[in-house]
Q: What sequence folds into this?
């Protein structure tokens, strides 16, 4: 559907030469898509709900929780991989793209999930992991048989150097060399993740066609789109050491779009760690026919050491953080589209990273939700975020059950990093923090499973769980419901301009959203200390409707503003007062 969006703004240039400033109206033509006002909920199936009592979450478990998700108000489920897999990287190593891992269920159950979700107006995004496959994928089993096997060129093979060592020094993201020697054929294959995840050779047109065919097969089943795993790696040129943002990337995506989802009304979101705002526009500007949106991680990596990365955490600086969020809000304000998230299955829990998982857990989790859900873009909620689940401190790195944490623990402790320093990094940033079983109630195993769960539950489940949250009208869960509903009701939240407020304030993250004469003010105290300040004349005396708050309703901005720790609220301003 095409709608005209009227954006009044003051233009000072040519009109000022006439000696006065005149209000002009700029008209933007925006094609609205269903996913512009959608809210996505990410499920990590292994840890969500176990229906068959084997300690591992499954599709039947998800179907059993669809009513819960419908009441929450979400429209889309991003399902982390459920395909057949040896689970070296918990499903991000796929051995059959057209079948379901037996521990998760069957293809028939997957079809039932798509249909049951559709009955509740919920669409399913499949996780498209096509930078690599599992080493148990039939393509790779064939490819490693001989150098002239027809599948050889589906992967990236290079001869050893004369001394027999790996072709070059490129490193895997999970530690160690990116090259693994294959004794049968005497060559190395390339893998940017574990050695059980060989990279596909996207320069081979047959690989492209196979992937397109498989995508269409899933699209024909009625899915709502794809989340595309590390998609910015597929245009790589290994011989030039280029892995991210390779020269063929955008062409490959345009071809994929044309061959698969281009004419279908679906959501596509790319995982792109190496993206800049300029590159994000290449992906998400509709006229370029690539993707709906991408995930950028610039705000996430602000708490990582610049050299050492996530294993050496760096203190959070709100001004830096606001700068990054504001930059992305403006850069994709008129063209392209933002995805909005604080956490996912690879990241620590939001309330532990940016809030206070202790004394102010409820207040800070609500504040984080408000700060995110009033931004422009499509919000993503990661399972358990809506009840304020926290990071976990296990004694042993083994308990985090994660190929990355284990691989890097080994590599870095061998290189001299102390066990204690490494564990601090793991407590702050291990992916395992996000993967402890979903906390449904206070019964044994948090109501996740009747059997011993594949991964230990967070011991705080008796206090933090869905059942308790459902019974408490003041819970974080109810706060999320309100935020999701507001997005559906108010176009200003979806389409309005973003204008930062109090840019230099070290504790406040505040902004305005404007669309025509609709105006919202959102104010968040991002700290555990109270804030008191004098409001500028431009905000003083503004009043309206209190949309959401985490202490008590607020509907007027006076001369002074005093905020409690992590206090946050949004007001829809009365146009008469503005
Ligand atoms: C990104 C995924 O989100 C992560 O979980 C996975 O390990 C890597 N890609 C490799 O597929």
A:
């Amino acid at each position: 559907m095409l709608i005209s969006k009227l954006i009044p703004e003051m233009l000072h240039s040519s009109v000022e030469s006439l000696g006065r400033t005149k209000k002009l109206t700029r008209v933007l033509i925006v094609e609205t898509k269903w996913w512009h006002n959608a809210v996505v909920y990410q499920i990590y199936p292994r840890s969500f709900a176990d229906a068959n009592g084997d300690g591992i979450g499954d599709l039947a478990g998800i179907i059993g929780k669809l009513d819960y998700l419908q009441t929450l108000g979400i429209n889309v489920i991003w399902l982390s991989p459920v395909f057949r897999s040896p689970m070296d990287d918990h499903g991000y190593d796929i051995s059959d793209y057209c079948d379901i891992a037996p521990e998760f269920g069957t293809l028939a159950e997957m079809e039932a999930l798509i249909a049951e979700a559709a009955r509740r107006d919920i669409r399913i995004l499949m996780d498209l992991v096509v930078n690599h496959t599992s080493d148990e994928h039939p393509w790779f089993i064939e490819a490693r048989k001989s150098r002239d096997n027809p599948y050889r060129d589906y992967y990236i093979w290079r001869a050893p150097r004369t001394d027999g060592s790996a072709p070059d020094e490129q490193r895997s993201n999970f530690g160690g060399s990116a090259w693994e020697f294959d004794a049968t054929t005497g060559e190395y294959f390339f893998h940017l993740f574990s050695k059980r995840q060989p990279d596909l050779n996207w320069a081979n047109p047959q690989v492209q066609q196979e992937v397109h065919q498989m995508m269409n097969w899933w699209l024909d089943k009625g899915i709502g789109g794809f989340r595309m795993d590390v998609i910015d790696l597929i245009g790589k040129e290994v011989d030039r050491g280029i892995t991210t943002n390779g020269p063929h990337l955008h062409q490959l995506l345009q071809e994929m779009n044309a061959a698969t989802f281009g004419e279908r009304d679906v959501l596509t979101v790319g995982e792109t760690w190496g993206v800049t705002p300029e590159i994000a526009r290449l992906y998400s500007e509709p006229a370029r026919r690539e993707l709906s949106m991408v995930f950028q991680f610039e705000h996430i990596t602000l708490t990582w050491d610049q050299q050492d990365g996530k294993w050496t955490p760096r203190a959070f600086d709100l001004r830096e953080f606001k700068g990054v969020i504001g930059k992305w809000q403006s850069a994709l304000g008129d063209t392209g589209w933002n995805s909005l998230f604080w956490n996912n299955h690879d990241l620590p829990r939001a309330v532990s990273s940016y809030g206070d998982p202790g004394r102010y857990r409820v207040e800070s989790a609500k504040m984080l939700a408000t700060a995110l859900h009033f931004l422009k873009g499509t919000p993503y909620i990661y399972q358990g975020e809506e009840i304020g689940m926290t990071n976990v401190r296990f004694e042993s790195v083994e308990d985090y059950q994660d190929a990355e944490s284990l691989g890097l623990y080994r590599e870095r402790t061998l290189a001299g990093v102390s066990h204690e320093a490494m564990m601090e990094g793991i407590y702050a940033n291990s992916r395992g923090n996000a993967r402890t079983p979903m906390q449904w109630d206070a019964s044994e195993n948090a109501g996740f499973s009747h059997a011993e769960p594949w991964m230990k539950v967070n011991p705080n489940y008796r206090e933090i769980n869905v059942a308790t949250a459902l019974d408490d009208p003041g819970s974080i869960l109810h706060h999320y419901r309100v935020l999701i509903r507001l997005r559906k009701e108010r176009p200003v939240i979806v389409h309005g301009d973003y204008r930062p407020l109090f840019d230099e304030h070290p504790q406040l993250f505040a902004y305005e959203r404007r669309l025509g004469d609709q105006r919202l003010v959102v104010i968040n105290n991002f700290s555990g200390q109270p804030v008191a300040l004098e409001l500028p004349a431009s905000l003083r005396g503004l009043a309206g409707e209190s949309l959401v708050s985490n202490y008590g309703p607020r509907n007027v901005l006076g001369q002074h503003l005093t905020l409690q720790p992590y206090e946050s609220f949004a007001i829809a301003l009365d146009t008469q007062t503005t």
